[in-house]
Write a structure and sequence with these properties.
The protein is α+β, with helices and mostly antiparallel strands. It contains seven helices and four strands, in the order H-H-H-H-H-E-E-E-E-H-H.
Length: 180
């Protein structure tokens, strides 16, 4: 994944995300002055920060939620930082999975995604469960094989395909998924 972002690209992406420097700093767990130095080109934008902004942009383009939900955040600053860090890591992991599936040409087979039961199934072979998140996103939770014993290493490509299918279904459902 490209991890170089110019100050101009950073400014454009933050604008497209409707993300002021102060919020970007909060979400990236850095000081707002650091974001301003990145935007001014005084300091290079580090890879992890660039990757986070690129992931947010991709999730935004897909119509998938990426911002922390207000009800996930407490008033304790340490808890706020922890929740932001966890959500950022979750979003980056989901983005990496979506990229891998896209690089393979998409899911190898059609998945049936049931947003009501929070499951995705592939022809009675494998079922992947997921949790709805308060911000309208989802988090994969478990999987089971119906034709043989589970092996998460062997089944990783199938699990990733399921996650991509779930992301598509959640994105398509939009507001109806969020209003659940």
């Amino acid at each position: 994944m490209e991890d170089q972002v110019t100050p101009h690209e950073l400014a454009e992406r933050l604008h497209a995300l409707r993300l002021p420097s102060s919020d970007a700093a909060l979400f990236l767990s850095v000081d707002v002055k650091t974001v301003k130095r990145w935007l001014d080109g005084v300091v290079a934008i580090p890879g992890p920060a660039a990757q986070a902004v690129l992931a947010w942009s991709k999730l935004e383009r897909l119509g998938l939620p990426w911002r922390p939900a207000e009800d996930l955040l407490g008033t304790n600053e340490e808890e706020v930082a922890k929740q932001i860090r966890l959500l950022r890591e979750h979003n980056l992991q989901l983005n990496e999975i979506l990229q891998r599936v896209r690089s393979r040409g998409g899911p190898a087979a059609p998945w049936r995604v049931d947003l009501g039961s929070c499951t995705a199934e592939l022809d009675g072979i494998i079922e992947v469960g997921f949790y709805p998140l308060p911000n309208g996103g989802f988090s994969p939770s478990n999987y089971r094989r119906m034709d043989r014993g589970p092996d998460s290493i062997r089944d990783q490509p199938l699990i990733e395909d399921a996650i991509a299918a779930i992301a598509d279904a959640v994105s398509t459902a939009g507001e109806t998924w969020i209003d659940r």
